[in-house]
Design goal:
- By secondary structure, the chain is mostly helical.
- It has one domain: Four Helix Bundle (Hemerythrin (Met), subunit A), CATH 1.20.120.
- It is built from three helices and no strands.
- Helix 1 packs antiparallel against helix 2 and helix 1 runs parallel beside helix 3.
Length: 196
């Protein structure tokens, strides 16, 4: 018979991991949603600023047709503004894929920790199956856990791969949008400096 203090420790560990899995999942989801919302709004503002600037410049150019020199600087600024809008929209389109993969990874990790704690508890502490009223076989718990662990590890690896890919793409698109909007504004300022 196992030591009762060790049994109590395992029981507490299992209950704590089960509670933590639920709470961590909830906290993570709430935090992720807040961060995603704020970043998405920021990138949307960049896209709107690029679109608004593009409309203003086109209107201004119509009133000063042929007088702005050098023309390649104006064209470059307009193209850069369009590319900024495309990068910002692509980033906001790709963001939910990252969020979903992040959520799935954290959830699979929490389930894995809960399953490990359950295995440790049921292997050490004899327990009764409520359906058959027979004692559970610890070896069957180990076997079942090995199957569950393999499945959860596969889900975890898949989620990590998707999360990494989506994160890299999202990060690259964010940085691209920021660099492009700065470059476009610099070109427009240079154009104004040269012509006025």
């Amino acid at each position: 018979m196992p030591d009762l203090s060790y049994v109590e420790y395992l029981r507490r560990t299992y209950e704590q991991n089960a509670k933590f899995a639920t709470e961590a999942n909830l906290r993570s989801a709430q935090h992720s949603q807040e961060v995603i919302k704020e970043k998405t709004q920021y990138i949307e503002k960049i896209a709107l600023a690029a679109g608004g600037t593009l409309a203003l410049v086109v209107s201004f150019v119509g009133a000063h047709a042929g007088r702005l020199q050098p023309p390649w600087l104006l064209r470059s600024a307009l193209v850069t503004l369009v590319l900024t809008m495309i990068a910002a929209m692509a980033r906001n389109w790709r963001q939910p894929y990252y969020s979903t993969a992040n959520y799935n990874r954290q959830y699979a990790n929490a389930l894995l920790n809960e399953a490990r704690a359950k295995r440790d508890l049921f292997v050490v502490v004899p327990s009764q199956d409520p359906d058959t009223m027979q004692l559970h076989d610890p070896e069957s718990f180990r076997t079942q856990f090995a199957k569950d662990e393999r499945i959860l590890n596969e889900k975890l690896a898949e989620s990590q791969k998707k999360e990494g890919s989506a994160f890299q793409q999202t990060k690259w698109l964010e940085q691209t949008a920021l660099v492009l909007i700065i470059a476009a504004m610099a070109m427009l300022i240079a154009l104004a400096w040269i012509n006025f």
